């Protein structure tokens, strides 16, 4: 199974470079499944139904989310009826939306799970315990399991990946908006990258206007942040899985 | 000017791979100056005079530090008289050690500055303001200025680098122990990499034993962490500066 | 000198109970100076010029602020020209507004300083260093010095107060919205209370609607918080200072 | 049922004032049950079996804990076999020790629960969810339910108490080491105090040596903290419960 995962799509510049480059990427990698993190699609903060549809129309199959999932309240009704969007599974029970979803890919199935870290992030349920619970449901169904672990601390990301090594196909990090260079396949067969990075304006601070972010750091006053303009880049990851759900290859992608 | 910067050296595995690989790196890159972050050299926590001497003997010219600088108290007397070690300059006034140091390299001089981030880190003085203060002293002396910015958040690292673009030769991140893939030269001529990564055991969680780190995450109880064993890797960065102190090239290095 | 200090005024219920009870308090305590923390006056978030004028009209002489100072942007132009409002002095240089102000009281003068904590709060300048700087300006002018230290951690509040004991007349805490019972005069003559508490709805969670705050804790989703309704209470502190600026008495006040 | 709850006992000064004053308190209040928070009994950090025995010998029936529970590793074997000690129930499953315990008092039973907050504290399970789980076990057994909620943020403490109002007899806060003045009985019959305070040295910073705590704040360097010496105080709370487990009275106690 061939999977293309696209890092946090930031605002219109992010969506536009994805729409522009995805045909080339499909031609080159022939992915069976395209997943993208969309927590910043709506001007850097959240996702709207309209933007979700645009991303599905651009051939993305599944959208994952993160700490910004609820920033745009338009998502609230939509997410409850949309099985192609997953929000972090370790939100408390009763929160709208799915924490994982099962997708048919050719003759197989794959589970796409979204988890969020706690270190420097928020008071969520344990991603370790939540992963165990979900795996007890999924493991009888399919060995193809993809996790977008939306987290800040490298230690927590590496820890969850090592914890799940051999039990899932891939643990792929998002949230920092900076791609890391540590792609690897762990001894048990789990593909790992600490952070895929983002799709958004190059000359920015994690996608947002430099002057505004700097004003925040320099004054410690609240400053409304807007998505930066100018040339954008695309960060992604391409994975191949064996029929047994083990990672066969992992390749970082950066397009400008 | 040719500069080799080596990421956080973690314990004996980190020191040993540096000692082993540095001759090759010197042969390949002919650095005029070798800098290394040594905050984790002493079993993952701090630095001792003996280990500092070993690293100087291995041809490292300057050692930078970070949040672990005081973990091993043997450093306290030593750091006050050693101009080849810099600890974060934005510690409060009166704290032992230097925040920056000036080094002669061929006919030129270079300032090596260590700064630490505040986001998710601690209650230090502003790295932005501290950088301004130091630059007002250094800019009349030399245009060659290298900063190791030891910080967690990608936004703070990118913000400081953009703030200083054109005023310093390089802003290079450390602390996460995971190398990022975003090396670039900013419009003003400042070289930037969000994180250089570490020198330490490959099959580990940021250098430490996996089982112990996992036990912490799974129990939330205090667990003493030890440096992992097994094969090590080296993360570094090579930079070339023009005579005007602008970055001419930037290249990430990973050796296993 | 007789000083009445009123804890964080939360929304309209807070302002109304202050307006209602202040005449009684004046009759009972005959304060020479009335100070109030107004960071939550505008629906729990910030302060407007109109609300500031209402509080001045209600006989409050000086308003102090806290982490919510910029929540309502109407304050931005106003605060620059209003010497009766102080915002935390340890914001970075260049931020609008005063960090301390000098007030004539009878034949004497008193300095009212606002400082904010860093522990669990934000990346401000050191309140310790900032206090030292301000005292170097004020000590030649007057021995009457009142500090509203807006902070979360009891350790930081006690630490600053002990640090300044004998150099200022009072260090009075705000921010937690819960009055503490540890009023005391330190050996050097500085009056201290960890937190004065708030003026706002009794049957609430720190002034806000219980259901909304609970929804936040139970779902970890963003929930817009509104000021609770129903009966309100007033928390305050009454201080007497000697002519030498030492605390002579300290008395907690709670009115419902 | 008459309950005396004693705030965090800090080091030997804390234990000694408890041993000294408890006979007077028993004479005055005739408690049926004496509970004390002992997380700081061992030199400010944790609890040893020997100190636990000394506190039981001093007539304390039940010991509660907090974030410092594991600081002294001697407790590890002991806590597993000692039903008179409870550590926060919202540690992950599998952690040693009990989260709640049932005690016979005259003809009745009372459950003593220990919970820990997450805001500014650590990545524990939800205290809200954990409370629900425990109550589903306890409610059929007894209506007398006492909770020591060891937490930092006033909002989280008030939120849990309002959440449980009418379902438990008391939610009593610990951890800040400063007694609050907001004792009350909620509409549903639950007694509440944001923080009981501590038993320890008066002239200290939350029980520890002032100079050492100040050195930490002033240098941001690690400083080993020791319990302060000199006169101590005792902070406690006295509660009366009806046979139906409702709070009938609540009274703060401070002895010096
Ligand atoms: Fe993001
Ligand atoms: Fe995120
Ligand atoms: Fe490090
Ligand atoms: Fe570090
Ligand atoms: Fe407030
Ligand atoms: Fe506040
Ligand atoms: Fe404590
Ligand atoms: Fe505690």
Rounded mean pLDDT of chain A is 98
Backbone CA Rg of chain A: 17 Å
Biggest beta sheet attributes of chain A? 8 strands, mixed
- The CATH C-level name of chain A is Alpha Beta
Number of helices of chain A: 6
Q: Helical amount among residues of chain A, as a percent range?
A: 25-40%
Low-confidence stretches of chain A: none
Classify the beta-strand content of chain A into a percent band: 25-35%
Q: Can you list the ligands bound to this structure?
A: fe (ii) ion
So what's the overall shape of chain A? globular
Describe the structure.
Chain A contains 6 helices and 14 strands. Chain A has 256 residues and is of the alpha/beta class. Chain A has a single domain (2-201, 231-255), classed as Metallo-dependent phosphatases (Purple Acid Phosphatase, chain A, domain 2, 4-Layer Sandwich). In chain A, strands 1, 2, 3, 4, 5, 12, 13 and 14 form an 8-stranded mixed sheet that branches. In chain A, strands 6-7-8-9-11-10 form a 6-stranded mixed sheet, covered by helices on one side. In chain A, strand 4, helix 3 and strand 5 (85-86) form a beta-alpha-beta unit. The interface between A and B is medium-sized, with 33 and 33 residues. The complex binds fe (ii) ion (FE2) (8 copies). Residues 8, 39-40, 66, 175, 177 of chain C line the site of one fe (ii) ion (FE2). Chains A, B, C, D: Belongs to the YmdB-like family. Chains A, B, C, D: Fe cation 2 binds at residues 39, 67, 150, 175. Chains A, B, C, D: Keywords: Hydrolase, Iron, Metal-binding. Chains A, B, C, D: InterPro entries: Metallo-depent_PP-like (IPR029052), YmdB-like (IPR005235).
């Amino acid at each position: 199974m061939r999977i293309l995962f696209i890092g946090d799509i930031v605002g219109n510049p992010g969506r536009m470079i994805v729409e522009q480059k995805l045909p080339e990427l499909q031609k080159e990698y022939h992915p069976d499944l395209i997943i993208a993190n969309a927590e910043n699609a709506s001007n850097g903060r959240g996702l709207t139904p309209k933007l979700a549809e645009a991303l599905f129309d651009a051939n993305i199959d599944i959208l994952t989310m993160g700490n910004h999932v609820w920033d745009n309240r338009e998502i609230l009704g939509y997410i409850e009826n949309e099985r192609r969007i997953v929000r972090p599974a370790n939100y408390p029970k009763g929160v709208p939306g799915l924490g994982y979803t099962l997708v048919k890919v050719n003759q197989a199935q794959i589970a796409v799970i979204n988890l969020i870290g706690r270190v420097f992030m928020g008071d969520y349920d344990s991603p370790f315990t939540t992963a165990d619970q979900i795996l007890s449901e999924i493991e009888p169904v399919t060995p193809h399991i993809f996790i977008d672990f939306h987290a800040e601390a490298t230690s927590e990301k590496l820890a969850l990946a090592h914890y799940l090594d051999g039990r899932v196909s891939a643990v792929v990090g998002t949230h920092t908006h900076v791609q890391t260079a540590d792609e690897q396949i762990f001894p048990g067969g789990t593909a790992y990258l600490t952070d895929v990075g983002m799709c958004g304006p190059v000359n920015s601070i994690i996608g947002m206007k430099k002057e505004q972010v700097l004003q925040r750091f320099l004054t410690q006053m609240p400053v409304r942040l807007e998505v930066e303009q100018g040339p954008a880049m695309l960060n992604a990851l391409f994975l191949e899985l064996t029929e047994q759900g083990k990672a066969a290859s992992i390749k970082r992608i950066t397009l400008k």
